[in-house]
Amino acid sequence: MNVVVTGGRGTGVVTLGETMALLTPPPAPRLRDGAAMTLGIGGAESNVAIALARLGFGSTWISRVGDDDFGTLITRELRAEGVTVLAERDPAAFTGMMVKEARGGRTLRVRYYRKGSAVSRLSVSDVERYAGVIAAADVLHVTGITPALGPAPAQSVLAAVDIAREHGTFVSFDVNFRSALWAREQAQPVLADLARRADLTFAGPEEAALLLGADPFAVHTFEDGEKLARELAAAFGAGIVLKLGALGAITLQDEDAHHGPTTPIVVTDPVGAGDAFVGGYLAALLEQRPPLECLSLANRIGGAVCQAPGDWEGLPTRAELPALGVTGAEVER
Questions:
Q1: What residues does the Carbohydrate kinase PfkB domain cover (predicted)?
Q2: Which of 30, 78, 104, 125 sits at a 20 to 30 Å CA gap from 153?
Q3: Among positive and negative, which fits the CA dihedral 187, 191, 50, 169?
Q4: pLDDT digit of tens for each residue in the chain (333 aa)?
């Protein structure tokens, strides 16, 4: 399959999903010892939306939030980042929350507090209200997180994808499997169905195995990754981008495999790096860059987020792109 987005045809990228209040502890002491925490926001789809907005693309986020201070914080922050916010305020539900647990300055675990949140009440009617926005976009980006939040959100994602396909909007899908939200057996048919409907699917090796209904296995070389990517393409008939961590990434288009290596970095906080990667890749795709350039930009932006605390704060603007990966540069004074 030839993966091409006609950039400029529409209004940019539309995302759909939950953004939560994010509580982050300092490196020490531990939460159990009464650590003060920093309040921010985070969510896979809005992370992608911010990445694209900082790079100068139109970016829209569809969701629901509670009628509470967390909901106000989320919508205010996203608007401040240049993202168009289409989020209903739900007076009968709360805004979801996630808490990072860290040791020695490294994030070890993320706990979610989202059951019964406003986004669990996301409905097909919410999506249909913005059908014209989806139809006018270049790209609809969805993830496997939203369907895990309940039957109504799952149907909402499918409705958004159906609208996109009906109107020729390119569909991007990041598997983003979360074992804390649902079991592999429950997730597999839902995520596989979305991969079949998408024009481009992003996955890691374990997520690729999940889509294929196989047991997780390690990918040690680009050759291993290419074989796995070809299995995915054969099964789902879409463009594939396989994220391989320190090995970089592989994209498979029109039977050709393209390998994009990454540069070793010191990781401060890996959460959000995958979303940054997707945002960078979609940005390059909108500019109709060749596959290797898409992978290069995606890897650079993903690496930038890894080197800063927070889910999205390390995302670069377009003006900052030339400085990514440059060490020992003079400080402007």
A1: 13-317
A2: 78
A3: negative
A4: 445 565 456 789 999 999 999 998 776 666 676 777 889 999 999 999 999 999 999 999 999 999 999 999 999 999 999 999 999 999 999 999 999 877 665 667 888 999 999 999 999 999 999 999 999 999 999 999 999 999 999 999 999 999 999 999 999 999 999 998 999 999 999 999 999 999 999 999 999 999 999 988 788 888 899 999 999 999 998 799 999 888 889 998 777 889 888 776 656 566 768 899 999 999 999 999 999 999 999 988 888 877 676 678 888 888 888 877 643 344 343
Taking the C-alpha atoms of residue 309 and residue 266, their distance in angstroms, rounded to an integer, is 12
How far apart are the C-alpha atoms of 219 and 204, rounded to whole Å? 10
Q: Identify each DSSP E strand in the chain by its residue range.
A: 13-16, 20-24, 38-42, 59-66, 84-90, 97-103, 106-113, 139-143, 170-174, 200-203, 239-243, 249-253, 256-260
Query: How many Å apart are CA 303 and CA 292, to the nearest integer?
Result: 16
At residue 243, the 3 state secondary structure works out as strand
135: left (phi over 0), alpha (psi -120 to 50) or beta: alpha
Q: What are the chain's domains?
A: 13-19+44-94+119-314 (3.40.1190.20)
Choosing from 90, 138, 174, 275, which is the catalytic residue?
Answer: 275
Distance between CA atoms of residues 226 and 257, nearest Å = 7
CA–CA separation, 204 and 175 (whole Å): 8
Gap between the Cα atoms of 247 and 221, Å rounded: 7
CB 89 within 8 A of CB 123: no
Residue 211: which of 174, 252, 172 has the closest Cα? 174
Active site annotation includes 67: no
Give the bridge partners for 60, in sequence order.
Answer: 14, 84
Cβ distance 197 to 165 under 8 Å? yes
User: Position of tokens 């999940």?
Assistant: 210
